[in-house]
Design a protein that fits this description.
Layout: E1 8-12, H1 20-31, E2 36-41, H2 53-65, H3 71-88, H4 94-106, H5 111-130, E3 133-134, H6 151-162, E4 168-171, E5 174-176, E6 182-184, H7 191-200, E7 205-210, E8 231-233, H8 234-242, H9 250-259, E9 263-267, E10 276-279, E11 293-306, H10 316-325, E12 331-336, E13 340-346, H11 347-351, H12 354-365, E14 369-382, H13 392-402, E15 409-412, E16 418-424, H14 428-440
Parallel strand pairs: 1-2, 1-7, 2-4, 3-4, 7-9, 8-10
Antiparallel strand pairs: 5-6, 9-10, 11-13, 11-14, 12-13, 14-16, 15-16
Helix pairs in contact: 1-3, 2-3, 2-5, 3-4, 6-7, 7-9, 8-9, 10-12, 13-14
Length: 446
């Protein structure tokens, strides 16, 4: 259950702006809670009849850059916005906006600027329909020389400017770069803009509205009736991101967690459904399994490196991981013993340069044996304090043993947020089901 809030920042994706009917539904959602005071909106998303607005703008820029005609795409952009404006029954000068966009293309404005116009125009339309103020993201969101959001400047400038507005609509996806030019976020990452605004205004809640807000306690492709997760912590969300259940970016999680701002995930198609709530800590009022979810990935490679006296070789790790680092190959996990180290890699990056890497390991490390094992799956059980919960490891071993699944590796996170088991790819689905029954449903094996 979500506590009463006085100030909510709501972020809506492209589906909420795709058509006039969707905009009306979105406006109804916003008006249903007086605390929703700042709305961060995306450009119109794809429909059954058209690709998304940002894609159309990118096509226009590509054609303009190669001196090809883009009139047909520009016409589609114009019609999309006109249909929305006409459907909303508002007065809005689309012709002026489209002429400005065409002028920008003729002047050779960069891709980021052209790509940002989708959000810019849509936010102005949305503000007009709501009767709210429009605040250009370029005036309150800033990027540093490293290409990342300048949080300090954004918090300062956005906080100062927005305190003068009771309600406002803000475009997502872009801000102002250190050189004064428009810069966009990576494609698909408009949540960061919303989180920045939430932190700047010290919001009581940050809402993310999308097509589906359901996060399941196990891969629904493997377990079709897996339970829906309703409450997790930000640290659990980070672990879930890492094992493949993408909720929001790590940067958003870090930002909101540091500011102690809860995040609620809602579905625009089912606005009355309970939200999934992400908080710095679980409320004592919440009753939930220690295990939040079971998930994983397959197609890993594990390299076993055998060398006598490994425990006394102070530079072994530096040599080995430096070898992978210079090839930009990420080591997902490693396990070390007295005379052996096992390193888990994602297979494609390693496979492309396998012989070269093995030869260099032999040359630099001088092991007495190297064994490369392909087809490894990593299955993780995620939950606050999972490693300290009595009986957890027993249930894992018994569940996998009951299904005749060989454990090839076992990793227990130092922060007690996960337990990761390595199994053969062929046993991936069986392992997910076995651990789900044992740790989420608490069923004992027969």
């Amino acid at each position: 259950m979500i506590n009463v809030c006085n100030l909510i920042v709501s972020r809506f994706g492209g589906i909420a702006a795709a058509t006039a009917d969707e905009v009306k539904k979105t406006a109804e959602i916003i008006r249903s809670n007086h605390a929703r005071r700042f709305v961060v909106i995306s450009a119109p998303g794809a429909t059954s009849d058209s690709i998304g607005m940002t894609d159309m703008l990118y096509i226009c820029h590509a054609r303009s850059s190669s001196r090809e005609s883009y009139d047909d795409i520009l016409w589609k952009i114009e019609q999309c916005y006109k249909n929305i404006v006409d459907g909303l029954g508002i007065k809005f000068d689309i012709d002026t906006e489209i002429n400005a966009l065409k002028k920008s293309l003729e002047l050779g404005m960069n891709l980021d600027y052209i790509g940002s116009r989708g959000e810019y125009i849509m936010a102005k339309i949305f503000a007009e329909f709501l009767g709210w103020e429009f605040v250009d993201a370029s005036k309150i969101i800033f990027f540093g020389r490293d290409g990342k959001p300048d949080k300090e400047k954004t918090f300062r400038e956005a906080g100062e400017k927005l305190k003068h507005y009771e309600r406002a609509v803000i475009p997502s996806f872009y801000g102002t770069n250190y050189d004064g030019k428009i810069k966009t976020f990576p494609r698909g990452d408009c949540d960061t803009a919303g989180a920045l605004i939430a932190c700047a205004v010290h919001a009581d809640m940050f809402e993310k509205w999308s097509e589906s807000a359901k996060i399941f306690s196990a891969d629904p492709a493997v377990i079709h009736d897996s339970e829906v997760i309703r409450n997790i912590t930000y640290m659990e969300a980070l672990e879930m991101n890492y094992i493949g259940i993408k909720i929001v970016t790590d940067d958003v999680i870090f930002m909101l967690n540091e500011a102690a701002i809860p995040m609620a995930l809602y579905s625009t198609h089912a606005p009355k459904d309970d939200a999934m709530l992400i908080t710095p800590k679980l409320s004592e009022k919440i009753s939930r399994n220690v295990t939040a979810c079971i998930a994983g990935h397959n197609n890993f490679t594990i390299i076993h490196i055998h060398k006598y006296g490994l425990n006394n070789a102070y530079d072994f790790g530096e040599k080995l991981f430096g070898l992978f680092a210079k090839r930009r190959i990420a080591c997902r996990y490693y396990l070390s013993g007295i005379h052996k180290m096992s390193v888990v890699l994602k297979a494609p990056g390693f496979d492309l340069r396998r012989d070269e890497i093995i030869d260099e390991i032999k040359k630099v490390i001088e092991p007495y044996a190297i064994i490369v094992e392909k087809g490894l799956s990593l299955v993780a059980a995620v939950g606050e304090g999972i490693g300290q919960a009595p009986g957890t490891f027993r249930r894992i071993f018994e569940a996998l043993s009951h299904e005749n699944i060989e454990i090839k590796m076992l990793e227990h996170g130092a922060d007690n947020l996960n337990i990761i088991v390595g199994v053969s790819d062929k046993d991936y689905d069986k392992a997910i089901k076995a651990l789900y029954r044992a740790l989420v449903l608490h069923e004992e094996g027969e």
